[in-house]
Amino acid sequence: xxxxxxxxxxxxxxxxxxxxxxxxxxxxxxxxxxxxxxxxxxxxxxxxxxxxxxxxxxxxxxxxxxxxxxxxxxxxxxxxxxxxxxxxxxxxxxxxxxxxxxxxxxxxxxxxxxxxxxxxxxxxxxxxxxxxxxxxxxxxxxxxxxxxxxxxxxxxxxxxxxxxxxxx
Length: 168
Prior knowledge:
Elements: E1 2-5, H1 11-27, H2 42-47, E2 51-56, E3 59-67, E4 85-93, H3 102-116, E5 121-127, H4 131-139, E6 143-144, E7 149-154, E8 157-167
Parallel strand pairs: 4-5
Antiparallel strand pairs: 1-2, 2-3, 3-4, 5-8, 6-8, 7-8
């Protein structure tokens, strides 16, 4: 498998993979992604060189974004809020590659990449109802910081997110 930064030629395949992920999440009553998020953010992520993909020949197996900041970062008590951190975002695994360890593999790649980019911590946010993701992060050594970030989507929708981190 090939791990690399995404390029614009990957965009349509990435969006198709994430549309399948969204359908699966909706079937499992984890209704946190939709037609806009995360798919409409990928082009900007590619332009800013922060979207990474794992490929198996021509198939997009998984992808994630590494960001310098997060809108929720000030709402969580981190182990060391003065250290450089990168934020893992939009991690997704192609449904055809589910349950074979790709999520853990991608977390390893995210840790390696963040460390190579000079980060001392890898942090992320996860919606409180996304139990499979929370279990994945805990299994891979992440610890939950104190506090909750209320992500306000609109007047009728607020997602409560937990912050997790891992020292690199």
